Amino acid sequence: MLNFNVQLNDTASIVEIALKEMLQKQGNDLMSAPIRHAVLNGGKRLRAFLVIHSCNIFEVQKDTAIQAAIAIECLHAYSLVHDDLPCMDDDELRRGKPTVHVKWDEATATLTGDALQALAFELIASLPNTDAIRIVELLKKLAKASGMQGMVLGQAQDIQAEKSEVNLNINDITSLQQNKTGALIEWSAISGAILSNHDDRKLLDYAKSIGLAFQIQDDILDIEGDAVLAGKRLQKDVSAGKATFVSLLGIENAKLRAKELIEEAIDALSDYGDKAEPMRQVAKFIIERKM
Amino acid sequence: MLNFNVQLNDTASIVEIALKEMLQKQGNDLMSAPIRHAVLNGGKRLRAFLVIHSCNIFEVQKDTAIQAAIAIECLHAYSLVHDDLPCMDDDELRRGKPTVHVKWDEATATLTGDALQALAFELIASLPNTDAIRIVELLKKLAKASGMQGMVLGQAQDIQAEKSEVNLNINDITSLQQNKTGALIEWSAISGAILSNHDDRKLLDYAKSIGLAFQIQDDILDIEGDAVLAGKRLQKDVSAGKATFVSLLGIENAKLRAKELIEEAIDALSDYGDKAEPMRQVAKFIIERKM
What is the predicted ipTM? Predict the structure, then answer.
């Protein structure tokens, strides 16, 4: 795991540098500071890692892969900025730093998210060395994954669940998770296949498994994690009385289920040989991470 | 003007039907009702009108034009839903109906705008009968026009101006307007040229003039307009002590300037003959409209 952590950090550094360079090219105006604050937050860059290594399997050019990777990180950053708003999850900290609406205000946070969504699509539309047909395919899938049948729906399902008296069952929270976080993880994992016009079904199976395992591990860390390490409030699901994978399965069964899912994810990569090794490693990392 | 009003209403009806059909295909889930409320609001559909008639000049297929037209209306609707939020303009009425955050709540309004932005890009990425290279060009321009160097920047400039002690001068409000509303009007007016791979400079000149005239007329209507007809609060700029084209130029000079701009816009269309007649008519409509 130590070696893999190094690899994950190396990729995160490359992504951070690429994001900085890209944002510098966008010029310096009213929106620059909150956008930088939202994007350059030292995250794990899990989605970017998946894009880069999915692209590597299919020999997509490196600069193409990195630009697709920073696009998904912009889209993810937009979703976090909006999720943190007082009318949504009302979070004041994100990776140990004040959230955008705390450091600036709610209007700025709304606009920051809006701008980052547009930027993500702009980056995909401008992918270097890529046939326009491939760009259009990837972009269509990004729009679907992030919109009213993907991430936004998942967020709406989450809010509805919080308000409702009725607790969700395991199918409900699986569907909620699949929309809220799974759809972007899937997009990231299949991106290399889409860009190189290859079959994406095995990668989709892989992504479905790691996406679900990721959420189960999040629920486990919400109970067992370290708030300082995580840089955010923990046990908020528990204190809100929300149904989670842990509350429904029990913590030991939740851990078992996550482990099974990671085995399934690794099996789905069997066709791809050594080049898929980073994607196998990241699958294991998902359930071994502490933050 | 009567005949032109009929034509504008006919186009708006076609756009309304196309929007309804498209939203039906998106299925029925948690986000459907607020999205329908935001999009199907009986607006003038000025941006859609520009897209359809810009496409007609260059003989872009009708179904392609209509899909591009409904995409820009989704994007415009997203911007209105977010602009109406309490942290932004805090408006309770839009075309005489309660705004999304009033009818639902702020979280739903935030998500509705987010979903509509994604939907706009999805619709452009899925344009029928269109070469992928043309789609990518149009999409890149839409992302730029709506993002941190376009519409979002304009909204941020507007908010900053409201907070600032220093009143804007005519260059400042021209830049603000060009970003906030001009960029999407420009995109709409040039869309036909982009989709057919023709030079877009004349249409860009046209669009810059009508965009500015549109804002001047808005400022005039904010003083002289009828709140019932407009379906929204009027004189809010005056009561907020904001600099507007009217407060800086005086109402008579503002009217003269708007008229000049429309003449310039019509001149810019001289190459395009009869097919550009609806775009000339809509330019005149912009300064003759009462709402």
Answer: 0.95
pLDDT value of residue A229: 59
Percentage of chain A beyond pLDDT 70 is 93
- The reported pLDDT for the residue numbered A231 is 61
In this prediction, residue B2 carries a pLDDT of 58
The answer to whether B140 contacts chain A (CB < 8 Å) is yes
List the single best residue of B111, B184, B187 to mutate versus A (max A Cβ within 10 A): B111
C-beta atoms of B114 and A111 within 8 A = no
CA-based nearest residue to A13, from A37, A33, A42: A42
Residue-range domains of chain B with CATH: 2-288 (1.10.600.10)
Q: Please indicate whether, in this complex, the C-beta atoms of B107 and A32 are within 8 angstroms of each other.
A: no
Please list every residue in chain B whose beta carbon sits closer than 8 Å to the beta carbon of residue A31. Answer: 148, 152-153, 156
d(CA B154, CA B176): 5
Q: pTM for this structure?
A: 0.95
Please tell me the distance in Å from B225's CA to the nearest CA on chain A.
28
- Where do the H-state alpha helices sit in chain A? 2-25, 32-39, 46-57, 62-83, 100-103, 106-125, 132-146, 151-163, 170-177, 183-195, 201-224, 227-230, 236-239, 245-249, 251-268, 277-288
pLDDT band at A222 (very low <50, low <70, confident <90, very high): confident
Segments of chain B with pLDDT less than 50: none
Is the Cβ pair A152, B31 closer than 8 Å?
yes
Residue where the block lists tokens 């998106």: B26
Pick from B29, B32, B122: CB nearest A143: B122
Per-residue pLDDT at B27: 80
